[in-house]
Amino acid sequence: MRPFKIVEDRGFRKLMKTGRPACYIPSKITVSRDVKNVFVKCRQRIVTMLQEYEGALSFATDAWTSPNHKAYVAVTVHFESEGKPIAMLLDIVEAARSHSGIVLAREFARILEEFGISHKVSRTSSF
Hints:
Blueprint: H1 10-17, H2 28-52, E1 58-65, E2 71-81, E3 84-95, H3 101-114
């Protein structure tokens, strides 16, 4: 929950080197790059897992407005694997204007498309 520049903080460096003075502490640029690389690899694994999943996928959304009046939407996917329930956050996006149904639907569809799983959503209606 700290910015990458924490690795440059004198107190942090002292704490990390206590008892291990030779401990290597990477630069904030290295930490930032590595976090981005891990994110990309993790996301690709999730994409593959969801695309190959044979069972039903359920989705949930949540929308809120931040204290600075920005609208956000989160989309989660829920499914069962080896008898255990799994829930994963797919994305949190800033909704351009508001939480209207059209904006929420557009963002939801875009996220599903991005993950290559839009074909896994039932298009039938019970009405």
